[in-house]
Write a structure and sequence with these properties.
Largest sheet: 7 strands, parallel
Distance between the termini: 48 Å
CATH topology: Rossmann fold
Number of helices: 10
Number of domains: 1
Mean pLDDT: 93
Length: about 270
């Protein structure tokens, strides 16, 4: 579907790694909707992924940037405004990483050096991205900044570990910076709390397949996939959501407001009879 929702808009998309990435899908949708944008990721991630294929398909430029490094971010925004010939209308922050999760450290026995690294990459980088844009006055009025989150910021999910804390901080940053950016330039800042999604990063969480099946069973509309998340993200970049800001928006098929579904109850009843 192409409705030119983003015709004439300029953006920066963080986090596209491969064609399973939500950021990758957002880039494809944004391109179809008429946007011009820069793709970016950390240099090490660029070496691991296939972002050049996406850049070619969307007629975009790739500018490497470590989202935890202010010098890199300043360069990214400065060069993006040159490449795109104007200020930025939308930014997607699709970045997350937990070394504790990768190393198999349980929540109650963290390596705190790993914890701080994960917090910096997953949450503080969201603040740094906005601070860089703020200092350079890089955002157009009524621009839109979106970060991707997960309901573990509000609820406990076994093995999601310190990523839950990171997402809680991410959402808090969206509210606080959303206030300041709204007052300054009418820029809106939101997070999307997405269903468990079959991405390269998401599938690295132990027990992810159980998370996925559980939420899919419980949600009346089922899990939202990466394509659907991308489409929803585009609406937040568009002018149709100019007064939506400082929100954590659940995009999870209704999972976030469910207690017990008929299907889940049937599963428990059947297991109790065995």
């Amino acid at each position: 579907m192409n409705n030119n929702l983003l015709k004439g808009k300029r953006g920066i998309i963080f986090g596209a790694l491969d064609d399973k990435s939500i950021a990758w899908k957002v880039a494809e949708h944004a391109h179809r909707e008429g946007a011009k944008f820069v793709l970016t990721n950390a240099p090490i991630a660029l070496r691991m992924g296939t972002i050049d294929k996406l850049a070619e398909a969307t007629n975009s430029k790739v500018i490497p940037a470590d989202a935890t490094n202010m010098d890199d971010l300043d360069h990214l925004f400065t060069e993006s405004m040159k490449v795109l010939d104007g200020k930025i209308d939308f930014v997607l922050h699709s970045i997350g990483m937990s070394v504790n999760v990768r190393k198999g450290n349980p929540y109650y026995n963290q390596n705190y050096d790993f914890t701080i690294k994960g917090l910096d990459v997953s949450a503080l980088s969201f603040h740094k991205v906005m601070q860089a844009a703020w200092n350079l006055d890089a955002m157009n009025e009524w621009g839109s900044i979106v970060g991707l989150s997960y309901i573990a910021a509000q609820r406990v999910f076994h093995t999601y570990n310190d990523m839950a804390d990171n997402k809680a901080v991410l959402e808090s940053i969206a509210r606080s910076f959303g206030y300041h950016y709204g007052v300054r330039r009418n820029v809106r800042v939101n997070t999307i709390s997405q269903s468990p999604t079959l991405t390269t990063a998401g599938s690295g969480v132990k027990g992810f397949d159980v998370f996925y099946r559980y939420s899919d069973d419980l949600a009346p509309l089922g899990n939202a996939d990466a394509e659907e998340c991308a489409a929803y993200t585009i609406t937040l970049f568009s002018d149709y959501t100019k007064k939506v800001t400082m929100q954590n928006l659940f995009h999870d098929g209704g999972f976030s407001f469910m207690g017990m579904s008929e299907e889940s109850m049937s599963n428990y009843l059947n297991s109790s009879k065995k």
